[in-house]
Specification:
Elements (H helix, E strand, L loop, with lengths): L10 H11 L4 E3 L5 E4 L11 E8 L16 E7 L5 H11 L5 E6 L2 H16 L4 E6 L20 H13 L4 H13 L1 E7 L19 E4 L10 E4 L3 H16 L6 E8 L5 H17 L3 E8 L9 E8 L4 H6 L40 H17 L1 H11 L4 H13 L9 H15 L4 H19 L4 H19 L9 H13 L6 H18 L23 H16 L1
Parallel strand pairs: 3-4, 3-5, 5-6, 10-11
Antiparallel strand pairs: 1-2, 2-4, 7-8, 7-12, 8-9, 10-12
Helix pairs in contact: 2-3, 4-5, 6-7, 9-11, 9-17, 10-11, 10-17, 11-12, 12-13, 13-14, 14-15, 15-16, 15-17, 16-17
Length: 564
Amino acid sequence: MKKLINRPIDVVREMLEGIVALAPGLALLDTENVVVRADLPAVAERPVALISGGGAGHEPAHAGYVGPGMLTAAVTGEVFTSPSVDAVLAAIRASAGPAGALLIVKNYTGDRLNFGLAGELAAIEGIPTEVVVVADDVALSGLVPPERRRGIAGTVLVHKIAGAAATGGKSLKEVAAIARSAASRLGTMGVALGSCIVPAAGKAGFTLGEDEIELGLGIHGEKGVERTKLLPADAITDRIVDQIAKDMKLVAGTKVALLVNGLGATPPMELAIVAGCALASLRSRGLAIERAWSGNFLTALEMPGCSISLLDLRPGDVELLDAATSASAWPRGGEIAQAPHIVRVPKTPENEAPLGDAGRFDPSELRRIGLAVCNALEEAEAHLTELDSKAGDGDLGASMLRGAEAIRALPDRAWINPANALVAIGNALRRAIAGSSGPFYAIALTRAGRHLGENNRFSPEDFRAAFAIGIAAISEIGSAKPGDRTMLDALDPALRALEATDGNVPAIEAWKRAAMAAADGARRTADMVPRLGRASYLGERALGTEDGGAAAVAIWMAALATSL
């Protein structure tokens, strides 16, 4: 287990101390793990208090929703463990007044018992209480009665709606009725790509194969209701949306709010993809999405995966969802576009390259050579990805693949002569490859092509000079030199091999020797300590692995030489 903690037994308290230290509007009870608003009015003047909570490990829930417009207090138990009756009672005493307290409870036995008993004890003391239980997990449809379903991420929407109602001055019974209504119109289902590690346990609750996922999981690191093969995001999302829509009996025209919730280890990139898929899936069913959010709302420690929640909206719900709150974990906005707003990229000028004359060159032959390079780069994608993953960011294989696809897509006019072909390829790679590879290849090919096109001459000496000009351009813009463990460590030996070849040697043989020198140079990079690029951050840890950029040069040079 690798976690940024001190002692597992101190995790919850130290976490809450950190949360409160960062939020002037919050306070922490001295002897209980309860976060309360620090700006509460005098007891007699307090509106209905909203109190929720549960085990730790669900951050930003529940303390992240404490603030004007949402919760008045949040009670936190040990990781994935219900808080005690005394902790809940302390929260009620610290935050409620004569208007009473609404306890919002997720449907787990421990939470129902402890919050329920604390509410009864508070009532005996003269603090009226109501309990609202959220049971939004539709994955258990058909397995257990509705009243036994788990409460999961949709609970956050109930917090928001009830919090806005309480802030608006409604009575305890009114706020409770609004919260129960929202909870009854809520459905959630999740998917996990892996497990999580409870600090006290020190190991994962379950294991999944590389191509397995768990559908219909809860929020405590447990397994789902079904283990299946990994599917594309749109297929997983559509299946979840379909299950929720069927369970809730949503028909075309129904207005809904959407919550895409990360389980702790899913990056915003993937949550945004799921959100886009969910919007499309909902619209395909004729449902009207009035509000939507994506992010981490109620997690399960570092579990990879997400859940999707739908709220069947009624009049007044949107206004309550839109009501202001300063709770730190509630996102602003929620409005969505009816469709992604896509605008056209400004048109690229038709003739970026010096077209020149076809002369003695056969465009189909030039294209054949270009496609041979494409084939080699496509076949090497996995190899280049592996090399770059060991000493870089792992994107080189994909970048070279995009570059090959861009070259394949060049029109026939691009291949009218070598000068035009080099400039056209450079422009294509500039658009297709981000990072550093794209600009390096673009400037090298463009300068080499322009040199050839200046006098429309294509002798072996001209090609050799163009090659040298391209290499010099890479060194100039990248500030690299041979020995720095970059693509230059394959390019420079190739150039020296060309320059050392006797003029009587056929050009094809000269380029074969250059390709062999490039391959040898790439191999030698495994013994070099990197001085530039991301690999330089690894220092000597990069030793033993060829530089990916140099390996890519060796691959396309070999393809070029054998296709001449």
